[in-house]
Amino acid sequence: MGITFPRFGTSHVAIGNLLKWMGHDVIKPPDITEKTISLGTKNSPELACFPLKITTGSFIEALDSGADSILMAGGVGPCRFGYYGYLQKGALTQMGYKFDSFIIEPPSRHPKQAYHTIKSLKKKTPWHTVMKYVYIVLTKQKYIDKMHKLVLETAPKEVGEIKSFKLFNEFVQKVEPVREVKSLKEIYQHYADKLYKFQKVTPKVKIKLLGEIYLVCEPAANLYIEKKLAALGVEVQRTIYLGEWFDGHVVKDIIPILKEKETEKTAKSYLSQMVGGHGQETVAQTVQASQQGFDGVIQVYPFTCTPEILAQGIITKVSKDKKIPVLTLSMDEHSAQAGIDTRLEAFVDLIYQKKLQNERGEALWVMGS
Amino acid sequence: MGNGVIIGIDVGSVSTNIVVLDEKQNLLAKEYIRTQGKPIQAVKKGFEAVEKYIKNNPVLSVGTTGSGRKLAAAMVGADVVKNEITTHAVGALKHDKDVKTVIEIGGQDSKIIILDDSIVTDFAMNSVCAAGTGSFLDQQAARLGISIEDFGKIALESTTELRIAGRCSVFAESDMIHKQQLGNSIADILAGLCTSLVRNYLNNLGKGKEIKSPIMFQGGVAANPGIVSAFEKELEQKILIPTHYDVMGAFGSAHLANIQRPSKSKFFGLEAIDDDFTPSSFNCSDCGNNCEVVNLKRNGLIVGSWGDKCQKYHQPTEQQKISS
């Protein structure tokens, strides 16, 4: 008995906390494994995108381990994500599962539905207590994100076996039960000190990781690309963090005056229109990457994702205009590990050569194995 | 004791190549061996063939590349393990430092590499589709009872332009059969296939890239004059074919190994290659990933492991240090 929700990066900590504190039994979505992916693929339409397959798979695993309700986000706009909750509800019901479904629509666009769903989810918790909980879990998410940013900085500087990511997982487990902001800060400091001790060598290159939100944030979906790049000596900066995303898309969407027009302005000369998902952001962030001193950009997206395919065509042009190398990886359940490794290594080689030539006027092939 | 040698090994899905250079980067030997699904045997065969060049000379550096680069590195003790894009680029640059475009069609992979001022600025590699690769040509030649060596020559005899559906090799095959039944000549059909393979390559890999000359064509398929002529027609430019076109990956890998020559090579020695290498695999069931882990054993001792997502079975690898 319990409520479950999709696995998505580290968000399970904040969402799990909130539901638990409001009086729910929570069945946390399990780690995404090959089994999750094959269950999801088997029970989803072939051409549906990878995030749908993964989340369907994780719902099945959670239902099998006793979940009796599912919480999912809704959505509006050209991306198909908005339909996923309803589609999954139908598919899982057809498979014989019995469960309650909660789909939260964006509060700014569908205030009534959003209000009713949240109201039934909060049970008897008073609204002001809910607000307090939301504040704590958001703060927690921001500390987790902050720690992740630090990990991406320290991992490529390590020599030998990379330990930063392991410490990050430990940190996430440590903060999970915490309910006071003060202890969050203390635990953060403790782990940050440990991470700083790793710093030894200077990373070779700096790459911005962007694209579709699920593929960027969920390591099991992008084949642990951040770890792989760190092992190649690459400092990665991820463009999307869940805490910031919540501020930018949920809070600021309700209060339009807070909404920044930066993305639209930057992307304007290349793409003047919202194309769904993060298509416009991908274009804007590629333009920005060239101004912020990044050596390259890696775009990840699920195979068949329309907004990102549109953006891909455009960032090829940005790449040429702004002279910034771009590598695109479109991924699905077939994505072959070895092929991705070869491309990543070749891309890093390419960038490093270019950098050496610009800095020293010579292109030395001095990279290790 | 003779002068030192440098070795480059490219273990691909269809062929395994080995190149031996002397200290002054002159090519002493090159071998092209069919992998036939047995990379370990292919590497052993390769070393047998070049043995006399290595026997009395100290090995200064060894490079491996190709999809089997890790396996080969664990077998022989390599100093430089590099992806095939980088090594093919190095190989092409060693042949002609002005090269701007490298077309590489191998057995299972095809690549395009764009260079500017001697550095790689862009590349693409085919992913799941094999419609533009050597093994498809091999299969079709075999089906028609033509040796792959004669394929290109016959295609050049064509007088009529035939259009073969090239989007997918399965479509191409049924289209070829259809054209055969209509009575088209073999020469025209083969020429049509060459053109469709080239179009498929340019559409798949060349899209959005500026293909500037000098254009170099390497990989086993470069031996096929039908494909070369189809490329020249489509691109309206002359195509260069380097002398060692069939072993450019190994050639580049050897040059890379030479550039990054270590003070002492990790090479295990010729005798070690005769050791008993046995790969074995098992399914780890510690989590839902159920990874198929492959262990490479040398005389019963594990010398390398692959395939685990969590890296539980990984030996710690040496982190590349930056020589600055």
UniProtKB/TrEMBL annotation, chain A:
It comes from Proteinivorax tanatarense. This is CoA protein activase. The lineage of its organism: Bacteria, Bacillati, Bacillota, Clostridia, Eubacteriales. Gene3D superfamilies: 3.40.50.11900. InterPro entries: Dehydratase_Activator_Redct (IPR051805).
TrEMBL record, chain B:
Pfam families: BcrAD_BadFG (PF01869). InterPro entries: ATPase_BadF (IPR002731), ATPase_NBD (IPR043129), CoA_E_activase_dom (IPR008275), Dehydratase_Activator_Redct (IPR051805). Residues 7-257 form the ATPase BadF/BadG/BcrA/BcrD type domain. CDD domains: ASKHA_NBD_O66634-like_rpt2. One of its GO terms (molecular function) is iron-sulfur cluster binding. Its cofactor is [4Fe-4S] cluster. Keywords: Iron, Iron-sulfur, Metal-binding. PANTHER family: ACTIVATOR OF 2-HYDROXYACYL-COA-HYDRATASE, BIFUNCTIONAL PROTEIN [INCLUDES 2-HYDROXYACYL-COA DEHYDRATASE (N-TER) AND ITS ACTIVATOR DOMAIN (C_TERM)-RELATED. This is Acyl-CoA dehydratase activase. It comes from Proteinivorax tanatarense.
